[in-house]
Amino acid sequence: MKIIRAKDYNDMSRKAAGIIAAQVILKPDSILGLATGSSPIGIYENLIKGYREGDVDFSACTTFNLDEYRGLTADHDQSYHYFMYKNFFDSVNVPRDRINLPDGSQPDAEKECARYDAAIEAAGGVDLQLLGMGLNGHIGFNEPEDTFPKGTHCVDLTESTIEANKRFFASADDVPRQAYTMGVQTIMRARKIIIIVSGQNKAEIVRKAFFGPVTPQVPASILQLHPDVVAVVDEAALSECGDLLK
Ligand code: F6R
Prior knowledge:
The chain is α/β, with parallel strands linked by helices. The protein is 30% helix and 17% strand. The chain has one domain: Rossmann fold. It contains seven helices and ten strands. The strands form two sheets. The chain has a seven-stranded parallel β-sheet, sandwiched between helices. Strands 4-8-7 form a three-stranded antiparallel β-sheet, covered by helices on one side. α7 links the parallel β9 and β10. α1 packs across α2. The protein is globular, with a radius of gyration of 17 Å. The structure holds fructose -6-phosphate (F6R). Fructose -6-phosphate binds next to loops. Fructose -6-phosphate (F6R) binds next to loops.
């Protein structure tokens, strides 16, 4: 794993957006794996700027998002569909028919998850997967467990994730209890991975995930085994890694 140190959130966002832009410039028909949450918003802003300035063109790209809440329709303002259109797709030229997210409105979890994995496979697999990391080390909605989950599947969200995500809803009771998410195996199949982490509150989990033992109790720790991972992490999130970085 290559760790790129960023000064702060803005610097992390610029550096990570540069890596994604380079991917699209080098391979215009890239299959991009995308993420939601607070961490990637600055990346999307930088990519939109690059698109407007003519530096990067998404017209041949295909995208697959990591996850979606089960039970929310695409037009729900807290759905990840809505988030992605608002923060990225409405402002760039990814063809609408090449934008993919799990469909949270599909009640048959097994069928929807199988459809999603098949669509990723049919597209040729993800070239570059963008990830954020939860406070408990989750990636996508793969929460700490006894084993690493595999393909796209339905998960019950943990209390800590519901608690962390309630800031986006009227109350914790409104946060959906389940989500469809790419599994760890789906994520690990991406040819390249870029993970971004910012903020003091993630310092402890950064140390565990990137320098601790590989364990499903810290799902992001599996990334240590991937051959092509870049972590773009700001100073605050790296603050507990100390001499491990030297
Ligand atoms: C989002 C996702 C999550 C987030 C993680 C961090 O699609 O899959 O794993 O990346 O919860 O969220 P933020 O960036 O809000 O701290």
